[in-house]
Amino acid sequence: MIGDNYKMNNVNRAIALRISELLVKNKMTQYRLAIKSGITHSTLKNIMHETIKDNLLSTVIQIASGFNMTVSQFLDSPLFHEDNLQL
Length: 87
Description:
With about 90 residues, this protein is an all-alpha fold. It has one domain: 434 Repressor (Amino-terminal Domain). It has 5 helices and no strands. Helix 2 crosses helix 4. The chain is globular and about 35 Å long.
């Protein structure tokens, strides 16, 4: 059974949820991720609070890099399956 987090999110929400999952999995803070990703902490906070309306792929690539993963690995989640997104 797929959890509620995987049902009908927009892309920005899916990105924020995926980051949250990976932060917990990697026992990492948002601040540490921002440092490792090379983005500002305020940018990451805005992504997490969904105040950024259009996340750039380049930013997602940087965030994936902060988790030591490829963007493909970052996007390899039910959160990003077309059936779970409002496009």
